[in-house]
């Protein structure tokens, strides 16, 4: 994605839905600013599998060519168009079948097949039922992590996965100092990513759940929504200069 990779010294890791997307005009301005600066590499990080993210990117009116994509809550990685299968070796032996059996007994439906992977089990579970679902899955003895976001998104992944898990790996793969990473997000499932990154941006349309999770800490909370909020945060952090790096 970077026009001049040798100049790249920052890595922007951005959530996709309602963070990068949501305002095509603002997205175009952001992408042009990144291209003009030539100092920021772009990685996308979604709760959805990479194949699903690719469909969204292909449908945008703006050309977005990320240097890397993280999908399915940190369980899939693609760098410069090539899947990094070795990343998934850390999840070897994790079996989602007991989770599916528990949820079937509880009567909570799975999300669409497009949103499921061997290492990400996704269900529609109302908030009031989250605790019971977690208790029942926990009783299976599996090493799991729960990622919940309103109103009814309930994901189960390996305990070593998560949106924040690949931060250092991505930086190393793209030749960026791990201390020069900035993350951007809008939803509750972005909280761990924003809190783990050295610098972070919550876009202006961030949910109340995310705002609560990040508290009053070091995360920059933009006034502008979507991609405009990302650009605002990059400027505020000095990662891009005024005028979008021109």
CATH superfamily of the largest domain, please? HAD superfamily/HAD-like
CATH class of the largest domain: Alpha Beta
Identify the strand order in the major beta sheet.
5-4-3-2-1-9-10-11
Let me know the number of strands: 11
Q: Share of helix among residues?
A: 25-40%
Assigned CATH architecture of the largest domain: 3-Layer(aba) Sandwich
Q: What's the story with the biggest beta sheet?
A: 8 strands, mixed
H/E series? EHHEHEEEHEHEEHEHEHEH
β content, as a range? 15-25%
Q: At the third CATH level, what is the topology name of the largest domain? A: Rossmann fold
Question: Which class best fits the helix and strand makeup?
Answer: alpha/beta
Shape: globular
What is the number of domains?
Answer: 2
Indicate the low-confidence ranges by residue numbers. none
Number of continuous helical runs: 9
Radius of gyration: 18 Å
Measured distance between first and last alpha carbons: 17 Å
Calculate the mean pLDDT score and round it.
95
